[in-house]
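Batch manifest, entry 17 of 40.
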Amino acid sequence: MLHGCGQPARPSPWTWQHGGVTPATHSTLFTPEPGGSQYAPVPPDADAVLEGLDPEQRAVATALHGPVCVLAGAGTGKTRAITHRIAYGVRAGILRADSVLAVTFTNRAAGEMRGRLRQLGVSGVQARTFHSAALRQLQYFWPKAVGGQLPRLVERKVSLVADAAARCRIRLDRNELRDVTGEIEWSKVTQTVPGDYAAAAIKSGREVPRDPAEISQVYATYEELKRDRGVIDFEDVLLLTVAVLQDRYDIAEQVRAQYQHFVVDEYQDVSPLQQRLLELWLGERDSLCVVGDASQTIYSFTGATPDHLLDFRIRHPQATLVKLVRDYRSTPQVVHLANSVLAQAHGRAAEHRLELVSQREAGPEPSYTEYGDEPSEAEGTARRIRKLLDSGLPASEIAVLFRTNGQSELYEQALADAGIPYQLRGAERFFERTEVQQARHALRGAARFGANDALLDDAVDVPSQVRAVLSTKGWTGQPPAGSGAVRDRWESLAALVRLAEDFARARPQATLADLVAELDERAAAQHAPTVEGVTLASLHAAKGLEWDAVFLVGLTEGMLPIAYAKTDEQVEEERRLLYVGITRARAHLALSWALARSPGGRASRRPSRFLNGLRTGSATAAAPRASSVAAGAERGPARPRKPRGPVLCRVCGRTLSTAGEMKLMRCEDCPSDMDEGVYDRLHAWRAHEAAELGQPAFCVFTDKTLIAIAEQVPESEAELSRIPGVGARKLSRFGADVLAICAGEERPVGLGEADDSD
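Output type: structure tokens
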């Protein structure tokens, strides 16, 4: 407990020096840690909450008075430190749980914080995003402050912006529409009104998608349309809450009476509007703990700025400052590279960078690979991933990270061609899947009426109850040997079974109703169990996550830093983006780039300037050449089957650019000369092969590869091998069958059921 003088209690005999320190929590909240459960027994008292913390984490946990600033590097256990701080304060009787408001930036992070607090024996703390907390207050106080019901929150802002542009007689294509919407969002979080947009955009050095005067006009009309239709948008939630708290002193005092202690995670990402809201919540008090890392500021395009973090001790001269630099996530090799990237940084954030110190045993050195073209890079990455999978590393512990979402298609194709399951970060949410919703409904019914259900007669604990219930929804003890859709459904249900098993290990006395409540909590926070598959994600989407193996791809000038990063500040943010990508890796890290976009194209690209001086033998200045292997990098395998020169459409002759077009060897909108009979036979054969192998159909051949085969009807192995998606492994495995089908021969296909899942 904290003594009356404010000094921390004596350390527990089980401390970090005796091996009791635990590493930063796994990035996926509901997946068990290697070798153990994600759930730990609830500490018996306040002192036990401090057990296992390192000295700096303990300093955070026991600093419960006045302003506190925590500078926390990647993988240093910042969430652990602040949740233990809240739990220690509550369980020591110093903080009242319902008076604490912990604020972070995603529902996932807020849900993780609530989950950790429950594991530490604390409930009642409000852990929310800025928007969630503001919306809750706005809904409660709106009738009193304004009258009536709060206007409806608009679901799709883009459609409203499109209507505003049409009213202004301004034509916007799909990309411009998205970009103009982003400009409106930026304006609102920086508290810029339509009339001031042009000047503010120029001052901030923004790369505007249209004439600033036009954007200002669309912005003003957008606001008018919202008023006319009686709706508000996401940013209005913060703006209106700020307005209510500024104008109504009585309401502000009511909020401040409720919340007396504040914790803000990812403080480097706050916008001016969020900072203003925080100040209104605080009033004249200073019971505030902020946590952040200026080197992980990668969202300035949304209005985020690290200035509030870096200026914290100027605003609060008496603030307690704690630095977390012990990296429990990554090996010394990964940490060294991360530190080296930041060592070349410039600007204010770089002046406050943290030098991380790995707490893990040594691992493999990061690899650097140069490829001739982007398809070769994707295929080479898939081959390396296959080796990791063959060595026993789970697919869910591998990620491929890229700068833009548009880069994902090549890697989707390459992984599918290699028979490697993958999942796109930001795709359909786990708890929104039909089978998961049905499973939760069935579990809720079993929890209520299970005593009268013969299905549960032989179920002796929560996991067996869950297995019994989900067996009626498609779960079996072994994965199905079926199509992609069948396997995906089974994986979703299996993830729920694994979660129930882990939950029961930590809480042996828990009931099925307790598990249902836990699932409801997680669904609200959109915290999904891991479904087995390699993760494909942009560097921005990867923030806050981690994997055993990370492949950073497409690291060329013009992509990282991105071509439109013109100012020094914009380039430095791109460098920080690479730093974030590097620090996602626990042990295996591979960095790669391609010299040309398409096979046979001009090798005019250069590796990212951020890699200069990091690879063995590379200079710190920009590399002068691109046609030879970059210093310190290995050459990726060549692709001799690809033709020289750009890939041209075999119908119209235009140069092809996308992976899908290259696979078809024609433009998407050029007419197809596909042999329908060959395609139907290939489709049925593929379904049979997939069932025999127990893999999704796309792991045999993707739909586009089947179409390309049916269009070209190859007569020899040489012709078949020239079709993208038919690599040496697949040629050896499936070539004879495919050529036989193309020649008109019948091939056994079991029941002959075609698969339409992909």
